[in-house]
Amino acid sequence: MTKISVGALALCGVIGLSSTGCIKQMILNGQIEGTRKASAAVDGFSDYEVGQTAAFAGVTQFEGMHFLAPDNEDALFMLTKGWTSATFAFIEDAMEQAEDAEGEGSEAYAYQKGRALAGYDRAIHYGLQLLSKKADGFDAAKKNDDTMKAWLTAFDDPDDAQNLFWTGYAWIARVNIIKDDPAAVSDLFIGVAMVEKAKSLQPNYLFGTIHTVLGAYHGRSPMAELKQAKEEFDAAIAVTGGKALLPKFQLAARYYCVSGDKENYVKTLTEVVEAPDTLPESRLTNVVAKHKAKRYLGKDRMMRMCGF
Fold first, then answer.
1. What one-character-per-residue DSSP string does 255-275 give?
2. What is each CA distance from 275 to 42, 92, 222, 280, 287, in whole angstroms?
3. Domains of the chain
4. Cα–Cα dist 96/102, whole Å
5. pTM value?
6. Contacts for 81-85 with beta carbons within 8 Å, 24 or more apart?
7. How many CB atoms within 10 Å of residue 273?
8. Contact 152, 164 (CB under 8 A)
9. What is the pLDDT along the chain (308 residues), one digit of tens a residue?
C-alpha cells in the first residue's frame, strides 16, 4: 500500500517548484489507501439493496480515483475486487432472475448476460494491470499451463494472494458465463492457475473463499472433478465452522445439484436461508448467499439446473 514517507517528503522539498504537485499526489494516494481500508464497512451491511447500491457506488468512486492516480495499486486492487464481487453478487443475480422469468432466449437475459461479461472483463483488465506491477510477460505466459505456472513463480509473497485471487476469480466466472464458447473454455486454465497459486500463499483467505471458488470450478459438470469439489467445499466450510454461507450455497449449487443429490441440495440451501447472523464481518456476503439460496430452492430452477 502507498505510504507517505519522510524520504518522499524530503524529495518533494528538493524538487522545489514542483513540490506542490508531489504533495498533492501523496495526499491523493493517502486518500485512496484510507478509502480502501474504510470499504470494509460495507461487509457488515445487512440490507441487500443497500449493499447493491454501495457496491456500485464504490466501484464508481475507485474508477475516479484510478483516473487521477492510474498507477496506484490500492485503486487497481479495489477495482478488481469491486467489479468481480459486484458482478457475481448483483449482476449475475439479475441475469439468473431474467433466466427464471423469461428464459435464456429472452432479451432481458441477453442484456444481463452482457452486463455480467462487461463486469468481469473490467475486473480482469484492472487485475492484469495490478499483477504486471509484480511480473510482466503475461501475454507470453498464457500460452499454456506450464508457461502460466512458471510466470506465477514470481508471486511468492502471501500478500500477492489477494491480487491473484480476485483476478483469477473474475477469469473463471467470466468463462462460466460463456461456457458454450470453446475459445473461452480453452483459456480457463489461466484463471484456475491464478487461484491455485493464491491458495498456496493464503489457503484460508477471506473466510475460505479460495476453496469455494476452486470447489465451484471442480464441480462445473457431472464429468468434472466432483471428489475434489467436495473436498474444497468442506475445507471452505471448516474455515469458519459453517458461519460463512457462500461455501454452503455453492456446495448445494455446484456439488449436490451436479451429483443429483436432491435431499442434501434442499437441506443445505434451507440451512443457508435459515442461518442466524453469526459472522458480522461477512454479513453482506451471507445476505447475498441467502438471497441466492431462496431462488435456488424454486421448483423451476431445481428442475432446469439439477433435473429434480
1. IIHHHT-HHHHHHHHHHHHH-
2. 20, 23, 29, 13, 10
3. 6-306 (1.25.40.920)
4. 10
5. 0.92
6. 81/123, 81/162, 81/166, 82/55, 82/58, 82/123, 83/59, 83/119, 83/120, 83/122, 83/123, 83/126, 83/170, 84/119, 84/120, 84/123, 84/166, 84/169, 84/170, 84/173, 85/55
7. 17
8. yes
9. 444 444 443 434 444 545 677 888 999 999 999 999 999 999 999 999 999 999 999 999 999 999 999 999 999 999 999 999 999 999 999 999 999 999 999 999 999 999 999 999 999 999 999 999 999 999 999 999 999 999 999 999 999 999 999 999 999 999 999 999 999 999 999 999 999 999 999 999 999 999 999 999 999 999 999 999 999 999 999 999 999 999 999 999 999 999 999 999 999 999 999 999 999 999 999 999 999 999 999 999 999 999 99
Q: Which cell is 284 given?
A: 453482506
